[in-house]
Design brief:
This protein is an alpha+beta fold. The protein has a single domain (4-361), classed as Creatine Kinase, Chain A, domain 2. Helix content is 49%, strand content 13%. It contains 15 helices and eleven strands. The strands form three sheets. Strands 1, 2, 3, 4, 5, 8 and 9 form a seven-stranded antiparallel beta sheet that branches. Strands 6-7 form a two-stranded antiparallel ribbon. It has a two-stranded antiparallel sheet with strand order 10-11. Helix 5 packs across helix 9, helix 6 (147-154) runs parallel beside helix 10 and helix 9 (236-258) crosses helix 13 (319-332). The relative contact order is 0.15. One of its GO terms (molecular function) is glutamate-cysteine ligase activity. It comes from Streptomyces ruber. Keywords: ATP-binding, Ligase, Nucleotide-binding.
């Protein structure tokens, strides 16, 4: 059974005002000093962010347990410095992002300018094990049209600098400013993938392979495919759903490759439109169906994804839990809907953050 690892980026916020607080260096130092972080916490681009990475697991129930444990430990560590942690794709309140001090991030500030300063966005990245680069690239080629559905399900960033962006995932729109971000054309082989990456690095526009921000890429350090299209999910059970669906997509794609089935040859232009649609309206309106690339109700498109990965999820024992969790997201709404409903109730973005702090720990 393929192993799965999940990385979540959380915001550090003032529990009274909801404004982001630049405390990650202090929190990471405390975690390292006490050994309580268990090497799962990492620094991110901005001091207002705290990232954790789960250990690889083959049972999705273990992933769920570890996500909840890491969120609680992050909250405990932040609390020692008078802060809270919250799973939000963007800060609802205006922020003054503080760049973490190291050579890499200083290079990014110099090279990319204002977009680097404004990248205070939090995502959820999922790693799934693959047997080889060839299998990994075959997977990347075949999962492309299905990824926008994950963006829609996870969308959790409707507010930007104190205003409603009119997107469910404005994080996605901010993320797309990186020159290497977004969907990719078909690679066809591991050799072509690595040649493309080498050519991109050779331009000097990006510093190294770590700045390849494809929607799905071969991980640099691990024998995995890394999928990077999701907002950090407000609810831990949604994060588990996203990870479950991604493993199902990887296994389904690998089986198609072994059977000699060719990937869908959708253009990057169409894939970008599908991504835009998912970021714009989440699961509340229409999405582009991955096969026909035509608009259909979001519920029907989510159902199509579940049917696409049904055999893979059945083999891992995850099918019924995935169906129930997807139905819950469609009924309750994604994180963006929860945030907007809270704002309609309270009329205060600070209260939105406070409510989401509670959701993060549930």
């Amino acid at each position: 059974m393929r192993t799965v690892g999940v990385e979540e980026e959380l915001l550090l916020v003032d529990p009274e005002t909801g404004e982001p607080k630049a405390l990650s260096t202090a929190v990471l130092a405390r975690a390292a000093h006490t050994g309580s972080g268990d090497d799962v916490f990492e620094e991110e681009l901005h001091q207002q962010q705290l990232e954790f990475a789960t250990h690889p697991q083959s049972d999705m129930r273990d992933i769920a347990t570890e996500i909840v444990r890491c969120r609680k430990e992050a909250a405990r560590l932040a609390g020692e410095f008078g802060a809270s942690v919250v799973a939000l794709g963007t800060s609802p309140l205006p922020a003054r992002p503080a760049i973490t001090v190291n050579n890499r991030y200083a290079w990014m500030v110099e090279q990319f300018g204002l977009p680097t300063q404004e990248q205070l966005v939090c995502g959820c990245h999922v790693h799934v094990s693959v047997e080889s680069d060839e299998e990994g690239v075959a997977v990347i080629d075949r999962i492309r049209p299905w990824l926008p559905i994950l963006t829609a399900l996870s969308a959790n960033s409707p507010f930007w600098y104190g205003r409603d962006s009119h997107y469910d995932s404005y994080r996605n729109r901010v993320w797309e400013r990186w020159p290497s971000a977004g969907p990719t054309e078909l690679f066809g082989s591991g050799e072509m993938y690595h040649r493309r990456v080498a050519d991109m690095v050779a331009t000097g526009v990006i510093r190294d392979e770590g700045m390849i921000y494809f929607d799905a890429r071969l991980a640099k350090k691990y024998p995995t495919v890394e999928i990077r299209v999701s907002d950090v999910c407000l609810h831990a059970d949604t994060a588990v759903l996203v990870a479950t669906l991604i493993r199902g997509l990887v296994e389904t794609a690998a089986r198609e490759w072994r059977e000699g089935r060719q990937p869908l040859d959708h253009s990057v232009s169409l894939l970008r439109l599908a991504t835009f649609r998912a970021a714009r309206s989440g699961v509340s309106e229409e999405l582009l169906h991955p096969l026909a690339m035509r608009p259909m109700p979001a519920e029907d498109v989510v159902r199509a994804l579940l049917e696409h990965v049904e055999d893979a999820l059945k083999d891992t024992g995850d099918l019924e839990r995935a169906r129930e969790s997807a139905a819950r997201v469609l009924r309750r709404g994604n994180g963006a809907r929860v945030q907007r409903e809270e704002l309609a109730r309270s009329g205060d973005l600070g209260e939105v953050v406070a409510a989401c702090v509670r959701h993060t720990q549930e």
